[in-house]
Amino acid sequence: MISAFNLTLNSNKAQLPLEVWGGVECTVNRVSEEYFDQLERNGHATRLDDLDLFAELGIHAIRYPVLWERIAPNGLENADWSWADERLGRLRELGICPIVGLVHHGSGPRDTSLIDPEFPEKLAVFARAVAERYPWVTHYTPINEPLTTARFSGMYGHWYPHGKDDLTFARALLGECKAIALSMQAIREVNPNAQLVQTEDLGKTYSTSKLVYQAELENERRWLSLDLLCGLVSPTRPMWGYLRDCGISEAELETFLQNTCPPDIIGINHYVTSERFLDENTENYPAWTHGGNGQDKYADVDAVRVCSEGLAGPRSLLLEAWERYNLPLAVTEVHVNCTREEQLRWLYEVWNAAQEVRHEGVDVRAITVWSLLGTYDWNSLVTRWVGYYESGVFDLRSSRPRQTAIAKMVRDLATGHKPNHPLLDTPGWWHREERLLYPAVNCRISSPSLPFSCPASNRPLAIVGATGTLGKAFARLCEVRGITYRLLTRKEMDIANPVSVNKILAELQPWAVVNAAGYVRVDDAEREPDICLKVNAEGAAILAAACAQHNVGLLTFSSDLVFDGAESNPYVETDTVAPLNVYGCSKVLAEKLVLHAHPASLVIRTSAFFGPWDEYNFVTSALRQLAAGNTFVAAEDAIVSPTYVPDLVHTSLDLLIDGEKGLWHLANKSAVAWSDLARLAAKKAGVSVKNLISLPTQELSWIAPRPAYSVLGSNRGELMPHLDSAISRYLEERN
User: b/e string for 44-70 if b means 16 or more Cβ within 10 A?
Assistant: First the structure.
């Protein structure tokens, strides 16, 4: 098994193609006295069969945790190896090489810290124990991103020991680098062939002319952990003087020259936000970006939001790392927190950048899809536990990890197939003009990254329903997401006319169709049931049959009014339908006809729209009337789960791109009466509710009967944010 893993990761690049590795976000970091454990949060701590899902992707290796804080929090003599035994054993059976991590943004058990003088020796003892227990493991990352961890723990104060000065930063970093060297020494005494895969977040800093001195410091310091390990921090190098000024002795620095531990593979982690821009003109930027160095005050912002040329990007940074070290490279984290098509674009761009530099002679071994299970609370740098989730190759908001579209791309890349989704034809947002949030600046980027150029397919997303709230919202958000679309009027495509439908599908050749058209007047449907059924059911069935014939995906919408309200718990997709009105009947029939004609269709039931871009939804009307001092009447006994239209559109598009099919329920998490919805929105908007009148439904002039309870839940995945968050974002967008 050892020889097989060595062949996978250590053969010459000319003999093997670029590999795909995977990674599980496994941070165990400490904030004050609290430990935040991603493995507990993402559930991988208790799901062994995740490993089988990973193996189905075709990945060659996986960055995998055997973390000091989890295995031996109370000392090595009390270590519990059972979790690692089972999982490393299963990876071995599956033929996936584990790249074992020992500390991942952590600071060790409670009896130590990054600035403990004995931290290096303590970690080395644990490292030896790991190697002795798993002698077949050949690849290690004793400490993930030591420079980043030292910055967050010793310079910015985010993580334990919460230092905010250069000396604490330097002590933490040197302690980590010494710990890496001692750990590899201990591991190699057990397994002489063990390899060091050393990861670091590699960015770049740009600045105005005034702040060039600070940018130069940042750009030299970004290499510091790797330079220390490679023995490159000498008296003639800038970082020697920097560390001496921090308070580090010459004798301590000389030990790194005498005891080098160069990586066998340098792992480059790079994010869209890893590149920074410094500007003393702070008035151009929000207050939260303001900071300084004691000499000058300046804003520190994402370079992508201000640099007119764009980013240096992964290609340039890989070349820089190769020129500096001439050591094998891998991209060890590829992730962007964004919508699904942007995640696909970023992954493919990094893959192509790695392929390009390989053709130029750079020894790049692999790219790593990060994170297989997504991440939690990295928007706050894991300084608090609020549950902000970013999905990855799998989405954890279902009863079991659900494959996203990224999984298919990973399998394609791992097996040598070229991804061909039409959405890859558009550059990612980091290349598009709308990325610029601040006055554009020439950052003097010598070789800005360019989007990978592939022949445009010109296959749009067809959106039916040009005059409706939902159709307009899809068009607006496709524009934002860089999704080529065609918004169709009834004159252009009449879904009740098979000739019209087939003609447009043949002309446009869309990759998918969104049916946002329909008869929506619930009370009027009682008076004209034939028209309602023709539009909602017959038209949807005709469209589904045509999409099936043309091999085109279909997304269409149904309603909470397919239920009778007899339940008191949220309805899920498998619950029995029993509509009370004509409109609900039309939607039930549409669901059956669509899924019969085109079983691969995605049918989304939703409820009680409100959004920022039309004037006639319930929330907007309520706030307008109440703000004007007018009375507003709402039902007090009809319980619904309102749906914020932008959330619905974004989530629906993600599911469509993922290739999901069948029935899904999408509504913002809530169960609220109409009158309480008006009250909640008014309170958040600072509007008086003294003129809000709550009445039972029997006293309202509704013609069609409605269910008293039509709250939507899901047994397929709770993907939508909470109503409270949705209303806050609605008000921000309106303002």
Answer: beeeeebbebbbebbbbbbbbbbbbbb
Strand order in the sheet with 461-464: 485-488, 461-464, 512-515, 553-559, 602-606, 662-665
Could you tell me if residue 4 is left (phi over 0), alpha (psi between -120 and 50 degrees) or otherwise beta?
alpha
Q: By three-state DSSP, how is residue 649 classified?
A: helix
Residue 114 neighbours by CB under 8 Å, 6+ apart? 107, 108, 149, 150, 153, 154, 160, 161, 171, 172, 175, 176
Contact partners, residue 260, CB within 8 Å, separation at least 6: 181, 229, 230, 231
For residue 12, is pLDDT > 70?
no
CA 110 to chain centre: 31
Residues 387/401, Cβ–Cβ less than 8 Å: no
The confidence score (pLDDT) of residue 126 equals 98
pLDDT higher than threshold 60 for residue 261:
yes
Closest CA to 409 of 401, 400, 399, 420: 420
Q: How far apart are CA 207 and CA 473, in angstroms?
A: 38
Do the domains 461-734 and 2-435 match in fold? no
Contacts with 157 (C-beta within 8 Å, 6 or more apart), sequence order: 163, 164
Q: What is the DSSP letter of 451?
A: P
CA distance 635 to 613: 24
- Give the pTM: 0.94
Structural domain boundaries in the chain: 2-435, 461-734
Strands 97-104 and 61-65: parallel
HSE of 465, CA atoms in CB hemisphere, 13 A: 25
The predicted-structure confidence for 562-591, as pLDDT tens digits, reads as follows 999 999 999 999 999 999 999 999 999 999
Burial class from Cβ neighbours inside 10 Å (0-12, 13-18, 19+) for residue 643 reads: buried
Q: Which CATH class for the 461-734 domain?
A: alpha beta
Rounded CA-CA distance 644/652 in Å is 12
- Architecture in CATH of 2-435: Alpha-Beta Barrel (3.20)
Strands (E), 414-488: 461-464, 485-488
> Residues 701-723: what's their mean pLDDT?
95
> What number is the average pLDDT over the span 547-574?
96
What are 142-169's pLDDT values in tens digits? Answer: 999 999 999 999 999 999 999 999 999 9
Q: Answer whether 309's CB lies under 8 Å from 325's CB.
A: no
